[in-house]
Amino acid sequence: MPDKLEYLHDLDKEIMLSYFSLSEAIAGLLGEFCEVVIHSLNAYEKSVIKIINGHHTNRKIGSPITDKGLQLLKCYQKDQSNTELVYFSRLNNGNLVKSTTHIIIGHEGKPIGLFCINLNLSTPLDKTVSSFMNYDPIPPHYKSENFITHPKELIEETFLKAVTHIEQHTTKHSKLYKKSIIFYLFENGIFELKEAVPIVAEKLSLTSHAIYKHLREFKNNT
């Protein structure tokens, strides 16, 4: 609710708004058993300015700050610790909740908000599992993200993807074949890795100078 942030400095407003999108991402990843809350520190009596899945705690926008939030802010004044890593609570209905609360720090180094994640551990297992499932069919060999331990591995895997993609509509004998592969890698940010140019140059039997020439052309056209 950006209009609730008008009292903040523009830089602090940007910081707070970045947590709005983060809250959507976390709630989307973990599902309905996860409540995500953002508190403004402008008025403790109605501090909640963003809440997702608030049905777990029966809160909504305009609800007040919690005792844990106040305690964490008090502790921050003493030791500058801005995160309560993990703690457990019981809701009024008896449900067990596992939580973490992080103090949002503004551009002047002062607290401007609270970012809280609450997991309802009493959610039935079938509902918890279903929240992690993708209801669209996923191809057996589908990979949307590569978790790698070395940059070279990422470069080589993405190069293979590029070849597979380009060869669907361009033959190896085409003059555009190598340039298309380089452009694919450029578009996917691979050349941000220092080792990328020499590795790609070797695989395409080109010089590093030729790769850089293409990259300059791509950058000039964007």
From TrEMBL:
Source domain of life: Bacteria
InterPro entries, sorted: DauR-like, DauR-like_HTH, YheO
Transmembrane regions listed in the UniProt entry: none
YheO-like domain sequence ranges: 18-124
Boundaries of every Transcriptional regulator DauR-like HTH domain copy: 169-216
PANTHER family named among the record's database cross-references: TRANSCRIPTIONAL REGULATOR DAUR
Name of the protein this chain belongs to: Uncharacterized protein conserved in bacteria
Organism, scientific name: Mannheimia haemolytica (Pasteurella haemolytica)
Upper lineage: Bacteria, Pseudomonadati, Pseudomonadota, Gammaproteobacteria, Pasteurellales
